[in-house]
């Protein structure tokens, strides 16, 4: 089937927020994956390293819960990272069934490199956005995540900013009333 010149054969997702979100997410994940490859990591492994860098030593169960994955998935990733010398596991002396995981010195160094890499990809992703646009996008994406979590019964923990007021300082030139104002549609009038 060929496209009609009147433009009615556009992709069905062309006006869909979900479609745009999926496309942006795929491209972001691919870019992060490429950059992680420079560090000898695969996508997903950075999340374990970042979690351990933030929390210190964790049980495998707590790590899986934080990452929102099943324990076998976390265990497999930790095994690969341990083989690379980035994390170490040890059984708890009073109960060998409980395994604790922490970063090695090399893992801590890699976690710092991931933080830099993440910031660089973030800068690429939001190039041309002002601070107000960035703040609004973060706020809207959190709202999308909360809506989807509520619709699916998923755990909503971690979907909010740590302290959205502290995390999202006022933008230069923006009054407190503008900062607190409800979001306006992102679609141009008459679109």
Spell out the blueprint of helices and strands.
Layout lengths: L16 H21 L7 H11 L2 E2 H8 L3 H13 L3 E6 L2 E9 L1 H21 L5 H22 L11 H4 L8 H5 L11
Antiparallel strand pairs: 1-3, 2-3
Helix pairs in contact: 1-5, 2-5, 3-4
Cα shape: globular
Proportion of residues in β-strands: 5-15%
Class derived from helix and strand content: mainly alpha
Helicity level: 40-55%
Main sheet? Answer: 3 strands, antiparallel
Strand order of the largest sheet: 1-3-2
Uncertain regions spanning at least 5 consecutive residues: 162-191
Mean pLDDT: 82
Number of helices: 8
Rg estimate, integer Å: 21 Å
CA-to-CA gap between the ends?
A: 27 Å
Order of helices and strands: HHEHHEEHHHH
For the secondary structure, the number of strands is: 3
